[in-house]
């Protein structure tokens, strides 16, 4: 609340026209294309920054009075100025740290994964457990990768590799042995132990909660490790113009929260606490206490994260109609719907933002039902509950996002055909359903607030400019029209920019502080080398970020600018 005061002060000052001259600003940026993303989507030429706030937005003439002897003046020379980007769902504090984890992201073959493991295992011969992340489901059959392949490289200590979507774990035989997982171990609630069809032995892939069966083998992360991950993340964020991020989840008593509180933050974070179907509503008070503990200006816990279902590629997304290749199977709903309704109502009543992961159209429907239920029992309030991923959504449910004021949090980076579509989604969902994946324009048409996100490290790198381009073009290869996914869902550039700025801010109750370039707001700004409205959309993702301001301080400046 206290940092609303400066806005009031400015409003008061604007009223006293008699004041003879403005205080010089710390920074003036002029002669640019300032796309403000204010309510009118207006443009300007110049901005002045005083302290952490925007002191002026307007034409070049009007900014002159803000220039004093100490003011740093930047001639934008026609370059574009946007509000700092907002990433509405990311995992900064849980990103793998290279020295602590085998990096599999971007490798494209089983042999590539095994080479990376071999190299890491010889570099760290004393590490008792080898962890890694980033393997792709597209390179393996539906039952997932096999333990025998890992065994060929490392058999004397446990190896645990999580998939790039974070929903499956690939483990070697030693990990299964030490965790006591055998052919007789039943699938845990909300999880699947993939098995050899002939022997019934665990085959090496653990889906969803089943991955938790081996999690205890590794030493828990330390605050220092989390600080390393955060540091690396903030550097990337500054380079990509990202100034605010919602961390999808931390846990109660998470060392990640401690790291956030201790770190020198150059990104503003909002975060959700994880609550699962195995938790008890008796613990809501603990969640309220944990939230109260972290109300720092740059790190605030204000939400609850619920996983409603899994993922299509793991056959764990919960569908309204059966999977195409398994006619008697609709996937996994991780919740009893009554308990889900009670849970959402309880956290709604405690004024948390409820941020739900739902991928299948069945998962989306049950969580919308739960939001409707919360509204029935608690009354209507400005809750800003959210559903993220929304890979498949029935058209009638898209309308409910508008009706129930639910924020849609899509990952436009994924709007394309390609290996996931061809190898997993088309065979698992059938072509007609797969072609309806990832609606976007329909959410805008339904009047929903749409706050875009990367889901880093599922998406690496996470430049919002790539997300904006995919939202407009619906492909990651504009040269190949066959890769366009659902062209009818293409959104406008204006809406895509809003989804990475002001809509994200709104979804976190920060729309009075950031998300647009307006006098009195925090000076979160990004300078782009060209005006996005002047270039072909396929060049948006390659547009360079030249400078990023966070609360009036430059946190990134490209060489030569
Ligand atoms: Zn996520």
Could you give a short description of this structure?
It is built from 18 helices and 24 strands. It has 561 residues and is an alpha/beta fold.
Ligand roster: zinc ion
Total number of helical segments? Answer: 18
Major sheet: size, sense and barrel closure?
Answer: 8 strands, mixed
**Proper CATH architecture of the domain at 223-514:** Alpha-Beta Barrel
Helix content: 25-40%
Q: Give the CA-based shape.
A: globular
- CATH fold descriptor of the domain at 223-514: TIM Barrel
Average of pLDDT: 94
How would you sum up this structure, described in words?
Helix 12 links the parallel strand 20 and strand 21. By secondary structure, this protein is an alpha/beta fold. Among the domains are: 129-215, Diaminopimelate Epimerase, Chain A, domain 1 (Roll); 223-514, TIM Barrel, CATH 3.20.20.140. The strands form 4 sheets. Strands 8, 15, 16, 17, 18, 19, 20 and 21 form an 8-stranded mixed β-sheet that branches. It has a 6-stranded mixed β-sheet with strand order 3-2-7-22-23-24, covered by helices on one side. A 6-stranded mixed β-sheet has the order 9-10-11-12-14-13. The chain is 29% helix and 21% strand. Bound molecules: zinc ion. Zinc ion (ZN) binds at residues 89, 91, 248, 455. Zinc ion (ZN) binds next to loops.
Characteristics:
561 residues, alpha/beta, Diaminopimelate Epimerase, Chain A, domain 1, TIM Barrel, 8-stranded mixed beta sheet, 6-stranded mixed beta sheet, globular, binds zinc ion
């Amino acid at each position: 609340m206290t940092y609303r005061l400066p806005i009031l002060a400015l409003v008061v000052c604007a009223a006293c026209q008699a004041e003879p001259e403005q205080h010089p600003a710390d920074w003036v940026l002029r002669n640019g294309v300032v796309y403000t993303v204010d309510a009118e989507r207006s443009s300007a030429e110049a901005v002045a920054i005083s302290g952490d706030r925007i002191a002026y937005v307007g034409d070049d003439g009007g900014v002159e009075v803000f220039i004093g002897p100490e003011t740093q003046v930047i001639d934008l020379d026609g370059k574009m100025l946007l509000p700092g980007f907002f990433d509405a769902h990311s995992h900064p504090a849980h990103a793998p740290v290279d020295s602590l984890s085998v990096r599999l992201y971007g490798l494209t073959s089983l042999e590539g994964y095994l080479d990376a493991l071999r190299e890491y295992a010889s570099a760290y011969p004393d590490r008792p457990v080898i962890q890694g992340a980033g393997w792709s489901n597209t390179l393996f059959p539906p039952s997932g990768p096999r333990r025998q392949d890992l065994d060929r490289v490392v058999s004397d200590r446990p190896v645990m590799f999580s998939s790039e979507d974070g929903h499956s774990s690939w483990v070697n035989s030693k990990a299964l042995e030490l965790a006591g997982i055998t052919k007789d171990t039943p699938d845990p609630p909300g999880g699947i132990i993939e098995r050899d069809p002939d022997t019934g032995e665990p085959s090496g892939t653990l889906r969803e909660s089943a991955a938790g069966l081996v999690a205890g083998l590794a030493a828990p992360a330390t605050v220092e490790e989390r600080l390393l991950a955060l540091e690396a993340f903030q550097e990337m964020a500054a380079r990509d113009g990202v100034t605010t991020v919602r961390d999808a989840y931390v846990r109660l008593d998470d060392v990640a929260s401690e790291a956030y509180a201790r770190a020198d933050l150059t990104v503003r974070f909002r975060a959700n606490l994880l609550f699962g179907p195995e938790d008890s509503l008796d613990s809501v008070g603990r969640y309220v206490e944990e939230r109260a503990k972290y109300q720092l200006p740059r790190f605030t816990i204000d939400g609850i994260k619920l996983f409603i279902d899994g993922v299509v590629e793991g056959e764990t997304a919960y569908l309204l109609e059966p999977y195409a290749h398994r006619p008697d199977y609709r996937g996994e709903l991780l919740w009893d719907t009554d308990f889900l309704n009670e849970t959402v109502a309880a956290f709604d009543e405690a004024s948390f933002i409820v941020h739900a992961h739902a991928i299948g159209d069945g998962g989306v429907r049950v969580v919308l039902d739960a939001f409707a239920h919360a509204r029935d029992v608690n009354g209507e309030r400005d809750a800003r509950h959210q559903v993220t991923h929304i890979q498949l959504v029935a058209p009638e449910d898209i309308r409910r996002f508008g009706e129930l004021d639910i924020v849609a949090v899509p990952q436009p980076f994924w709007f394309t055909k390609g290996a996931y579509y061809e190898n997993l989604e088309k065979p698992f969902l059938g072509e007609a359903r797969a072609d309806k994946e990832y609606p976007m324009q329909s959410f805008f048409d339904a009047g929903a607030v749409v706050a875009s996100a990367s889901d880093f490290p599922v998406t690496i790198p996470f430049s919002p400019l790539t997300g904006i381009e995919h939202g407009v073009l619906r492909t990651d290869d504009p040269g190949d029209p066959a890769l366009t996914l659902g062209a009818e869902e293409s959104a406008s550039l204006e809406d895509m920019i809003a989804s990475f700025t002001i809509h994200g801010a709104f979804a976190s109750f920060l729309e009075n502080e950031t998300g647009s370039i307006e006098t009195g707001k925090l000076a979160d700004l990004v300078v782009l080398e060209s005006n996005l409205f002047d270039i072909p959309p396929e060049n948006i993702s390659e547009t360079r970020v030249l400078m990023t301001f966070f609360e009036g301080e430059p946190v990134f400046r490209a060489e030569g600018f």
